[in-house]
Specification:
12% helix, DNA ligase D 3'-phosphoesterase domain-containing protein, 43% strand, 8-stranded antiparallel β-barrel, 3 helices, mainly beta, 168 residues, globular
Length: 168
């Protein structure tokens, strides 16, 4: 099963990087407000550069690094399953789904489970991340508020940022 990771990143602005393994790299979108469990809520998702697979477990503080400065934690991670189908109900490979502008997948993470979809919105190149209506949908729960800690280190983004200042 391919992997996914959601990294909280305090760069110029706080955001969540949603990354999905596709053809040996992590396809990535910056989601400013993080994933929502409410199927009615559409979250802006801005495509970013592909990342190496080794980046899936990165936590720390970038200083003017290639991927932007600021603290990073692994907010969630796990496996995902492609669910994108064509009009004949045949599975479409993830790379082709992304190229076509609609990618549906099921997450099996520590915090996030169930089905989700990225959909390109049109001319500006932005995408939307939407929770699919399923048993894991919960409009009353905001995991970005109730579950702020890294699944790897147990630190919040603020604690990770503070740890960089205490290295001296």
């Amino acid at each position: 099963m391919p992997v996914f990771v959601v990294q909280q990143h305090d760069a110029r602005r706080m955001h969540y990087d949603v990354r999905l393994e596709v053809d040996g790299v992590l396809k990535s979108w910056a989601v400013p407000r993080g994933p929502s469990l409410d199927p009615v809520v559409k979250r802006l998702a801005v495509p970013t550069d592909d990342h190496e697979m080794s980046y899936a477990t990165y936590e720390g503080v970038h200083e003017g690094a290639r991927y932007g400065s600021g603290a990073v934690i692994v907010w969630d991670a796990g496996d995902y399953q492609n669910q994108t189908r064509d009009k004949q109900h045949q599975l479409i490979k993830p790379a082709l789904a992304i190229e076509r502008g609609h990618f549906r997948f099921a997450l099996q993470g520590v915090k996030l489970t169930g089905s989700w979809a990225f959909t390109r919105t049109g001319r500006d190149g932005d995408w939307l991340l939407v929770k699919v209506r399923d048993e894991a949908a919960d409009p009353s729960l905001d995991l970005t508020v109730t579950e702020p800690h890294s699944i790897l280190s147990g630190l919040t983004i603020e604690e990770m940022a503070a740890s960089a200042g205490s290295d001296g």
